[in-house]
Amino acid sequence: MTTKTILTDVRVFDGTGLTEPTTVTIDGTVIGDEPSGGQVVDGGGATVLPGLIDAHVHLIFPDDLRKLAEHGVTTALDMACWPKERVDSFRGRVPDIRSAGVPAIGPGGNHARMPGMPAEAILTAPGQAAPFVAHRVAEGSDYIKVVIEGDLLDQPTIDAVVAEGKKHGKLTVAHASSVDAYCRAVRAGADVITHVPRDGVLDADTVARMVERGQIAVPTLAMMEAVITGVRPEGQDYAYSRDSVAALHAAGVPILAGTDAFSGPAPLPNPVTHGSSLHHELALLVEAGLTESDALRAATVLPAHHFGLPDRGSVRPGLRADLVLVDGDPSQDIKATTSIRRIWAAGAEVEVTHR
C-alpha cells in the first residue's frame, strides 16, 4: 500500500556526498515536493539513498526477489533467465527487473552444460545471429547478451550478435572473464562488458579503446573473488580482477555495481547470494580504487542512466520513490549501506522478515 510519507531530518546522497538535514516526501509511487499532509517519519539524521540497482543477477526462484528487496535492491538487471514464462513471472514485482532472457553462447563450454540451457542459445555461425536476436526481441528481452567463453564463439559471430542487437535498438552485453575475451568484446563493440579478467590485467590499449567507444564495465568483483578463493584455478588471481577495475576506473570507463548473484546449484563453497552480495561488491569496488561516492553511484544513478531507466537512480521529485534509509554516512564509510532501517520500492515499504 502506498501512502504519503514524509521523512524529516534526513540527509540525502546527491551523487557526490550528503546534503544538510532535509525532508523527503513519498507521494504515492513517486518522490513528491509537498512536505505536508502525510505520515511523518523522523529520520533522526539518517541517510536516504536511492534504491540500489544490482546490474548483474540471475533469477531462478521467487525468493531471489525477496532477498534482493530486503537488502535495499529495488531494481535488478537479470543477465540470463529462461523460459519466457519464468522471466515474465518476475516482472511487475519488487524489485523491478529487466532481463536478457536467453544468452547467446558457444557449443561445448560451461554455459552450454548448464541444466536446461535451450538449444537455440548455442550459435556456431554468424548467420544464426539475426534469428537469435529477433527471437529475443519477440520474447521481450530488454537487452541482448553474448557469452564470450574461450574461442567457442568466433569473432564474426560475436560481432554479428552485437550488430543485430543494435539494429533492433537493444543494449548489448558481453560476458568476458579473461583478457582475451575482454579484448574480443571490446572489438565487437558491446555496449556493456560484464565480469573482469581473472587471468591478467587489462592492457592500456584495451582500456583506452573502451573509453573511446563509450563502453561500460560491470566487473562483478564479488563473483571473481568467489571463483578465485573457492576454486583456485591455475594461473588466475583476484589481484588481476581488482587491478583491472582500478585501470578502468582511472581511465574513466563507467563502472556499474553488479554481483552475478545466483541461487542455483554451483560448485562454489562460497556462493554469491542475492542482496547481501551487492553491499560486498560496493566494498570491493572501494578497495579497487573507487571512492565511496563513486561506488554508490555505481549502484544507483549510473546503472539507471546506462540501462535507460531515467525514472530512478536519484532522490528527486518526480522520480520513482525507490529509497533506502540507512544509519551512518556511506559516502564516507561504504559499509554503512548495510545498516538499513527501512526500504521503499515505488513508494511501498518493503517488509523485512529477515536478512
Give the secondary structure arrangement, pairings included.
Layout (H helix, E strand, L loop, with lengths): L4 E8 L9 E6 L2 E3 L6 E4 L4 E4 L1 E6 L4 H9 L2 E6 L5 H7 L5 E4 L29 H11 L3 E5 L7 H13 L3 E5 L3 H10 L3 E3 L9 H10 L2 E3 L2 H11 L6 H14 L24 H12 L4 H7 L2 H6 L16 E4 L13 E6 L2 E2 L6
Parallel strand pairs: 1-4, 1-5, 6-7, 7-8, 9-10, 10-11, 11-12
Antiparallel strand pairs: 1-2, 2-3, 5-13, 13-14, 14-15
Helix pairs in contact: 3-4, 4-5, 9-10
Descriptive overview:
With 355 residues, the protein is of the alpha/beta class. Helix content is 31%, strand content 19%. The protein has eleven helices and 15 strands. The strands form three sheets. Strands 1, 2, 3, 4, 5, 13, 14 and 15 form an eight-stranded mixed beta sheet that branches. Strands 9-10-11-12 form a four-stranded parallel beta sheet. A three-stranded parallel beta sheet has the order 6-7-8. Helix 4 (155-167) crosses helix 5 (179-188) and helix 9 (276-287) packs across helix 10 (292-298). The chain is globular, with a radius of gyration of 20 Å. The two termini are 22 Å apart.
Structure summary:
With 355 residues, the chain is an alpha/beta fold. It has helices at residues 62-70, 84-90, 129-139, 155-167, 179-188, 204-213, 221-231, 238-251, 276-287, 292-298, 301-306, and strands spanning 5-12, 22-27, 30-32, 39-42, 47-50, 52-57, 73-78, 96-99, 143-147, 171-175, 192-194, 216-218, 323-326, 340-345, 348-349. It is globular, with a radius of gyration of 20 Å.
